[in-house]
Amino acid sequence: QVQLVESGGGLVQAGGSLRLSCAASGRTLSSAIMGWFRQAPEKEREFVAAITWGGLSTYYAASVKGRFTISSDNAKNTVYLQMNSLKPEDTAIYYCAAANRGTRVDWKSEYDYWGQGTQVTVSS
Questions:
Q1: What is the pLDDT of residues 14-60, one digit of tens each?
Q2: How far apart are CA 103 and CA 83, in angstroms?
């Protein structure tokens, strides 16, 4: 019903920046919340940031607040994650997710659709 495709990952030195994109297709109007999660090897997938589709509210994990910015462009059906001041501990596969409804934006179970992920590697 909804397809999500992430892009923009890559290799960057500590202190550098990357911008991830999540292109949505399908029944995108049904998604109330768009979120970013990340998963490092052998670790649980963790919440990074979320935005209501109207862009009225944004949410961030404490570990990224002040460094990452989530935004959306409804006309392009795209959500972005601008990542600045990257640290080696930010290294992970980053996943875009969409929720039809719900307010628990940091709960994986709130999300109905997931992208394939894009690798972000930050070297020290």
A1: 999 999 999 998 866 556 899 999 999 999 999 999 998 777 899 99
A2: 24
**One-letter identity of residue 97:** A
Cβ–Cβ under 8 Å, residues 35 and 17: no
DSSP string, 21-69: EEEEEESGGG--EEEEEEE-TTS--EEEEEEETTSS-EEE-TTTBTTEE
Both tokens of residue 13? Answer: 């030195």
Neighbours of 98 (CB within 10 A): 26
Tokens 């109007």 sit at which residue?
29
How far is residue 46's CA from residue 52's CA, in Å, rounded to a whole number? 18
pLDDT score of 34: 92
- Three-state DSSP state, 109: helix
101-111 pLDDT, tens digit per residue, is: 877 899 999 99
The pLDDT assigned to 56 comes to 81
